[in-house]
Amino acid sequence: MANKKKVVVTGFEPFGEHTVNSSWVAVQELVRLGLGEMVDLHVYELPVDYQAVQDILLSLWKEHQPQLAVHVGVSGIATSVTLEQCGHNKGYTRLDNRSFCPASHCCMENGPDYIKSVIDMDTVCKRVNGSNIGITVSVSKDAGRYLCDYTYYTSLHQGQGYSAFVHVPALGGPYSSEELGRGLQAVVKEMLNLLEVDYNEWGEKDNKHCHHKQ
Predict the structure, then answer these.
(1) d(Cα 214, Cα 212) in Å, to the nearest integer?
(2) Which has the closest alpha carbon to 78: 6, 139, 31?
(3) Does domain 5-210 sit in CATH 3.40.630.20?
(4) pTM of the full predicted structure?
(5) 73-89: pLDDT as tens digits
(6) Among this protein's residues, is 148 annotated catalytic?
(7) How distant, in Å, are the alpha carbons of 46, 91, 110, 174 from that of 9?
(8) Which residues pair with 165 in a beta bridge?
């Protein structure tokens, strides 16, 4: 029997006007819906805290060595489920929940300006939009230069590109919690399908992940 695929999915705690963070609501709905028997799913609620996120992501990649990490965040301007193609290193001037921002305003000093996910988000988008699940998906190349973007870049670096970021609208704008969960389930399943095409044997990817950047 084939080995289970290990997937880590995160959402965020409340911040600012988002007293209920739809990202964590969507992740909880994903847990309820599941990703099938062949996926070993681990979920975590991340703090809106630059320093804590760095430490947590390092430990999550080290502990679980997942085939894929998917991070979910809320966007106050999004009206669709938005797939982010890349994370950015610089431009972090907005204060977190602890009134802190990195002194260097970047994720990783001397790191590349951006890191792309190995997943082709355009393909995921087309497949989910073509499946008629009632959820509209779009693609973005700017995750916003706040904790979402910071988390994504950090995770892409730790996981050598095997990470994804999904922005969801606030609850009711226009989707319910159940719809957000269904949309998240659909995009994560398509991401895993793409990775399976790239790697006929998951063991090949597991071997790559034995040496995460520290």
Answers:
(1) 6
(2) 139
(3) yes
(4) 0.91
(5) 999 888 999 999 999 99
(6) yes
(7) 10, 25, 28, 23
(8) 71, 84
